[in-house]
């Protein structure tokens, strides 16, 4: 199990450009075997992207998800998803339902919004890398 992230680590990670956070996400979730999202009384959180698609956010650690559990998501708590379930059920289902993925969004609103099958392909490539 990975050690919890310090506030310093959290600040530094959110300070990275979205593309670097994406790379970090791929590496960390492949190693940890899970992703994190936020879930509250109304279910899993989502927002509309600029094109009107439902967009679901995911983070590589619970502390990073918790950092965005404010304002509209103040009743939410980090919820883990096993990586195989995320890849085979969530991403494929989201693609079928024309939903998007927000990878490691930061409190300032930056992040990468993408097609779930593109993320699935990147995760498969990351998992196929030799240790």
TrEMBL record:
One Pfam family here: DUF2750
Alphabetical list of InterPro entries matching this protein: DUF2750
Protein name as it appears in the record: DUF2750 domain-containing protein
